[in-house]
Amino acid sequence: MTSNADTPITPDDRARLDPVFMQVILDAQAQAQQTQPAQSGNLAAMFHRETVTDALQGCAMLIAGWNQGRVDEAGLTRAAKALRALDLTDLAGRLENLRNIAAPQD
Predict the structure, then answer these.
(1) In this structure, are residues 37 and 44 in contact, taking their beta carbons and an 8 Å threshold?
(2) What is the mean pLDDT of residues 12-38?
(3) Angle, nearest 10°, between helix axes 73-85 and 89-96?
(4) According to the lineage, what is the superkingdom (predicted)?
(5) Per-residue pLDDT tens for 67-92?
(6) What is the per-residue pLDDT across 55-73, written as a single tens digit (0 to 9) for each?
(7) What does the alpha-carbon distance between residue 105 and residue 49 come to, in Å, rounded to a whole number?
(8) Where along the chain do its domains lie?
(9) What are the angstrom distances between the C-alpha of 21 and each of 24, 36, 37, 54, 73?
């Protein structure tokens, strides 16, 4: 289902910007998977796995939306929130910039 807040992407923009979009997504996925729990113990490991899963599912939602010609806002929010929880704040910001990937550049 497409949210009203999703950013539409034209087929031309999608073709032109696909390498950039996918590089950000692949980087987010790889870095999320390389993180370690902030503390030791089973509970910390469980929450860490859940947060990594949220980041990966958000990225999957973004890819699915991209394939449908939009930047999925729910996926973007989910992935960025998880990346921030994993202390990947800069990467979360890069991901959020995908909202404006097709905006005209000055």
Answers:
(1) yes
(2) 96
(3) 170
(4) Bacteria
(5) 999 999 999 999 999 999 999 999 99
(6) 999 999 999 999 999 999 9
(7) 38
(8) 10-35+44-101
(9) 5, 26, 28, 19, 14
